[in-house]
Amino acid sequence: MFPPLPTDAVTHGIQLAVAPVFLLTAVSGMIGAVAGRLARIIDRARLVEDRAQTSVDEELLERARTELSELRNRGRLANGCIALLTLCAFLIGLTIIVLFLGETTAFEASRLAVGGFLGGVVSFLLALLCFMAETIIATRLLNFQLPQRS
């Protein structure tokens, strides 16, 4: 059986672990936002594919190929963003565990906690870059000009 832990150590361990928890909240919000964007990308790709399969208009087919290529790139960026956010959440969760164990046991946690936290922050920043790139591609699609009708 484990010896009883001092209440002060447990309280301090929880206080140390609270700060990284706020980052987990931001990560979960970002995952929700990016997952929503990914769902819209997939829905749009299915719509464009369906229209292209029933068309014989060469101009429409070329535009569909171009848009599907852009949607594929956006989907890859969104998937990369979700992967980086998941890695961030894992590293932050690991940091919380290490901080708590370091405070309540004899486990030396400082280097591992710093590495986990910094790794999580770097993953979050890289995910933000993927998100920004995806939104830039999405807004670039809005710049397409419709052909002039005579």
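[next item in queue]
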Amino acid sequence: MKKKRLYTIGVVARMYDIHPQTLRLYEREGLLKPSRTEGNTRLYSDEDLQRLEFILFLTRELGVNLAGVDIILNMKEQMEELQKQIDQLFEIIQKELSKVRSTEELKKAIVGVPRRKVMRLEDLILQKKLTDE
């Protein structure tokens, strides 16, 4: 099991060339949620750093203000949750299709039913690109 790395506010500030007050502001605005020690020291995980990098990209490169960053982060989280639900639904459909294919009734059908695999659109596009090359 990989040990989780944690970073203090000073280390993170130096790593990303930002003032510690900026990190505190991001926390006050709800954009970052570092864990805390018993002594109340902020500890940033690798996941926190990935989120910080995204925040800095939005603010530095795209000029998005903090209210916009908040909206974008919330939308990103909602999209990730929806993607998880789609993946779960996809797995259920695959399982159900495999059950249907294995039934004796299907095997005795007068008209043969070709085996089809349900594929994600992205996978289908990638497969097409690979075969075209």
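[queue empty]
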